[in-house]
Amino acid sequence: MSHQPESRLFSRLEIDGNKLTHQPGSVLGSTALVAGTTVGAGILALPAVTMPSGIVPSTVLLIAIWLYALICGLLIAEVSLNSIRLEGRLSVGFLAMVESTLGKLGARIAGGAYLFLHYALLVAYVTQGGEILISAIAQFWGISTPPTWLGGTVFTLLFGSILYFGREKFVEKLNSAFVAIVITSFFGLLFLAAGQVKSGQFLVQDWGAVGSAVSVMLVALFYRKTGFKAPP
Question: Nearest 5°: CA angle at 63, between 33 and 57?
Answer without folding.
Answer: 135
